[in-house]
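Q: How would the structure tokens look for this protein?
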Amino acid sequence: MVKVQAQGKTFECDRGANLREVLLKNGIDLYNGNAKVINCHGFGTCGTCAVNVEGEGSESQWREKARLSVPPHSSASNRRLSCQTKVLGDIKVTKYDGFWGQGSETVWKPQA
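A: Here is the predicted structure in token form.
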């Protein structure tokens, strides 16, 4: 088991678990505003589950890289799509503002 810190909570999950599923299962408010209603449900196409991940996550694959290179995201940012990220070790997750989580203001961070 590995530890995930997000929105002031700490919980465990299996190594290799999908980060989006782990966050939602543990009651984390992953989506900003109406993105909660119109997100792509984990297919990696909408970009609304973008977060900053510190720690051991899987490498970005082509789908995630492609989506994060299209505005309003920027390939220069250090964001990850939680739906395309596997938890490989202990991680800390931060969510930013903006419909797609592309903003610069912190919505929530690992510790309160």
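The two ends are 23 Å apart (CA to CA).

The beta strands are 2-6, 9-13, 17-18, 50-57, 79-81, 86-96, 106-108.

Upvote if useful.
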